[in-house]
Design a protein that fits this description.
Elements: H1 10-22, E1 28-32, H2 33-42, H3 52-60, E2 72-77, E3 80-86, E4 92-95, H4 111-124, H5 129-143
Parallel strand pairs: 1-2
Antiparallel strand pairs: 2-3, 3-4
Length: about 150
């Protein structure tokens, strides 16, 4: 999900309709905490905009066309735990981020894309969700040690 926060909400309004039209077809949604809060604020969920686990749960439980498998919402939060909500489940699981020393952090640009790549690679390999999250976090940790997205 990419909901940029532009002045006056014009960017949000521009992408809201196509985003909403595609949402019934999502099996997985991966976003960061800022994108999750932006979604909440633009979708009458402002009352939970500060509660990222509640937003993850709301994203997971949006109406879905393919009922053969549940939707899984993944919200990254930088150094805070990665959240995973599964459609129809009350618990939002938290996966602590593997810490690296601050002197190894070079550039955080691209960390979210690296996480998504590692997470999806885990899914494609048939790994379970905790392992896929671990793979995403591992790749994001490698990414932030490089200059520029890599």
């Amino acid at each position: 999900m990419a909901l940029a926060e532009e002045a006056g909400g014009q960017e949000q309004d521009f992408f809201k309709e196509p985003l909403d039209a595609s949402s019934p077809y999502w099996d997985y949604i991966i976003c960061n905490e800022t994108e999750a809060a932006s979604y909440a604020n633009s979708h009458d969920l402002a009352h939970i905009a500060e509660d990222i686990p509640a937003i993850a749960k709301a994203l997971a439980n949006l109406p879905k066309k393919n009922t053969q498998r549940p939707r899984i919402a993944v919200v990254t939060q930088g150094t805070q735990p990665t959240l995973v909500a599964v459609q129809g489940q009350d618990e939002v699981k938290q996966f602590p981020v593997h810490a690296i020393s601050a002197d190894k952090i070079n550039d955080t640009n691209g960390a979210g894309d690296a996480f998504a790549g590692g997470f999806v690679a885990g899914l494609v390999q048939g790994k379970d969700i905790p392992t896929a999250v671990d793979m995403g976090q591992w790749l994001a940790a490698l990414s932030i040690q490089e200059l520029g997205p890599s």
